[in-house]
Amino acid sequence: MDHICLQMHHHKSKYKTNLSIKEKEDWKAYEESGELPVEVMESLFEKETDQQFIEKFQFICIVMETLGLISSPLLDSEEELEIYIVPCMLRAAIPSRIQPILDKPSTVKTPVLCVKFDKDFIPQAIWDKIIAKCIHRFKPMEEDGYDQTDFIQRGFVCLAVDSLWKVVLNCHKNAMIVILFTRSKSQIPSGKGVKFREFLDFLLQTVLEMNHQGHFRYSYYLHNDYEFSKNEQMVKAEDLSELDGIFCRGGKGESCLSKKDYDIWFQPITEAQTSVKTVDGLPVHLPERKPSPKELGRISKFIGIYHLSFFMELECPIDTVDRFFLDYQKISRRVPITKSMVAFFNKTPKRGFSHIASAMTEGGMNIDLQTILEGANREDLLDDFDVPENLLQRPMSIDHVSIVSDFISPRESYILFLELGLKETIIEREEVSCINIQEQITTLLELWIKVEGEAATVRKLLQAMAECDMDIQGLVRSIEENI
Question: For residue 255, what are the β-bridge partners?
Fold first, then answer.
């Protein structure tokens, strides 16, 4: 891999030569926007016929993204990746563009948090990589009268943390300014910003260590302005932890910061507060136990693009979530979400359904967990499909595996086998031991049939496939034609 990256660096100037008219237009658009279409990247890599670039295209992109050189935007589940964002090529930031949003009477916002390094100079590449990793984890916010270029600029982003809260990150020289905001009539509760601040700590340390700059130190300040200005005066956060009422000065004048401002970013919500929040307003009939991997697989379907906010609220370690999303980049988002939850609940067996419900509620996911758990394996799941009852009752046999495996989507095969009742440890064992995903699917299907025997019916298989949105009708036709 090192050899390939060195070759790419050596040949990068060639990418801009011998371009067709369309390729020149695409390259100019990229230089102006910082958005690099996947098809343009592939076209450029194909020009290097004496190198391994195009053969290793997906691998190279994963490495470049891990290093923060490019970023794939967070996509909805059905979207195909069409562009990479290159943070160092984004347009110059105009932070004042979003001021009208923050000034709306319905907007409530946290005090401004500032991460300031002890060193006066921090390489811009550090901020570019922080921005890249945030773009990969959160979608740009949406607002009437604005487009994505207003919310993604060099060193500046405005992103949706979840369906309720938005965040502004503004990076300049040796500091990064952070503000959370939403539309509400309520005051911002103590501790609201703590989990996002801890996430930023994780992100900063990851990027610094990746760039061999883990020795860089920074401090937290509080402020009244999300824009940088001359002669500004911020308040060191630790000072506010001891003194109430300290003045700061930004581009819009002076204001007094209080201990309440400090608590929003630094006062963790206590276990007692968490317990009350978990019980109040939630269904009392949720099971009082740890969810099974199969149940977590069902729940994962409803977490979606705001998964990171969900895991922050759940207090699941972000490095665990990151590891699974890195390992399972090219398949359904449900898989790393499920695996992250399984790992978390294995380590915290005293937590259960109420904690999941609370985390979903905090992120604006108005989903009834009980409905999710009861909804799977219903008889009416197959009502939309014309399947004869005698076929549904038929037991599967090892001879059928080659037919069935063609209709099992590799993107969600992990969820399917959880639905079929295989233990999570068994599925993971085959992930490691099998040469490829198709062999893994075949092996696990055979194992399910051997374990279940006569109970491994077509009905059970189709119900599991329905939970995973797989091609039921295609499989039914194939079974009728070949069995």
Answer: 248
Q: pLDDT per residue over 5-59, tens digit each?
A: 444 444 445 556 677 888 889 888 998 899 999 998 888 888 776 667 777 888 8
Place of tokens 């937290």: 220
Stretch (H or E) spanning 21? helix 21-33
Q: What does the block give as tokens for 53?
A: 């670039």
Residues 315, 181 share a domain: no
Mean pLDDT value of segment 177-200: 94
Q: CA 442, 447, 448, 450: dihedral to nearest 10 degrees?
A: 130
Non-local (6+) Cβ contacts of 46 within 8 A are: 53, 54
Asked if 87 contacts 241 with a C-beta cutoff of 8 angstroms, the reply is no
Going by C-alpha positions, the residue among 382, 383, 458, 392 that lies closest to residue 420 is: 458
SS3 469: coil
Chain-centroid distance, C-alpha 135:
9
CATH code for the domain of 99: 3.30.310.200
d(CA 103, CA 294): 46
- Give the residue from 179, 174, 228, 173 showing the smallest Cα distance to 200: 179
The count of domains in the chain is 4
| Position 444 confidence tier, pLDDT thresholds 50, 70, 90 | very high
Q: Which residue has the tokens 């079974």?
A: 479
And the tokens for 342? 């399984």
Q: Are 259 and 337 in contact (CB under 8 A)?
A: no
pLDDT tens per residue, range 328-338: 887 899 999 99
User: In terms of residue numbers, what domain contains 60?
Assistant: 2-66
CA distance 381 to 262: 51
Q: Do 303 and 338 contact (CB within 8 A), yes or no? A: no
| 291 secondary structure, DSSP code | P
Helix (H) or strand (E) holding 214: none
Last residue of a domain, one of 330, 365, 400: 365
Contact in structure between 259 and 333 (CB atoms under 8 Å):
no
Tell me whether residue 440 is in a domain: yes
Does residue 254 sit in the same domain as residue 279? no
- DSSP single-letter state for residue 381: G
Residues 253 and 275 placed together within one structural domain of the fold: no
**Do residue 179 and residue 112 come from a single domain?**
yes
Query: Do residues 142 and 149 touch, judged by C-beta distance below 8 A?
Result: no
453 residue type, one letter: G
- Find out whether 404 and 461 touch, Cβ atoms under 8 Å: yes
Q: Taking a C-beta distance cutoff of 8 angstroms, is the pair 221, 114 a contact?
A: yes
Long-range pairs for 366-369: beta carbons < 8 A, 24 or more residues apart = 367/302, 368/283, 369/283, 369/286, 369/299
Output the CA–CA distances (angstroms, integers) from residue 203 to 133, 159, 198, 245, 434, in the order listed: 8, 16, 9, 31, 34
